[in-house]
Amino acid sequence: MDPTPFPRLTGSADVSVRPARPAEAPDIARVQAVAWRTAYRSLLPAEVLDSWDEAAAAATWRAAVEAPPTPGHVVLVALEGSAVVGFTAFGPAELTDGEPPSADGPLSDITTLLVEPRWGRRGHGSRLLAAVVDLARAQGVDRLRTWLPEADGVSAAFFESAGWEPDGWARTLDTGGPPLRELRWHALLHGDDDEGDRS
């Protein structure tokens, strides 16, 4: 019997998605730094992006892979050949202050989903999202959520094309510069017409 707790993640010899390994933490931190500096240059203060500590980020990601806080917390990587070109992390949701318990059953939050820009438009983001859906379903999760900057039209279009939509919640983050307003998006994982059928 296969001892892995994960459903088999599909891919080809050239592109695939699988659980991250501790040694890949520096690659994950690199993808995060490059993606943020490219996509969020107009949203976050320059000093925040330019002073990014990749070594500290790598240590954080290594801990997340080696010792996740719960079995439901998972970090996945997208590969092209042997290169890490994207990643995502998700885990059990924490309710926002004042938010009632979900009527939809267990929730998980995608805390980040990023693809290094030079590897964009090759299906890596869609494969990562499909893998999250498969694993979340296997965990008994009924709804996935994520926060997106309101001004990030590219990410909004990506999630919308996968069947996600805003759920009416918003928050404003202190960035040390102009406030960053985010909207929460969600998708149900049951029914015939959800994003789990897209790749």
From TrEMBL:
Pfam families: Acetyltransf_1. Residues 15-195 form the N-acetyltransferase domain. GO terms for molecular function: acyltransferase activity, transferring groups other than amino-acyl groups. Residues 1-22 are annotated as: Disordered. InterPro entries: Acyl_CoA_acyltransferase (IPR016181), Bact_Acetyltransf (IPR050832), GNAT_dom (IPR000182). One of its GO terms (cellular component) is ribosome. Keywords: Acyltransferase, Ribonucleoprotein, Ribosomal protein, Transferase. Gene3D superfamilies: 3.40.630.30. PROSITE patterns: GNAT. Transmembrane segments: none annotated. PANTHER family: AMINOALKYLPHOSPHONATE N-ACETYLTRANSFERASE-RELATED-RELATED. This is Ribosomal protein S18 acetylase RimI. It comes from Blastococcus aggregatus. The lineage of its organism: Bacteria, Bacillati, Actinomycetota, Actinomycetes, Geodermatophilales.
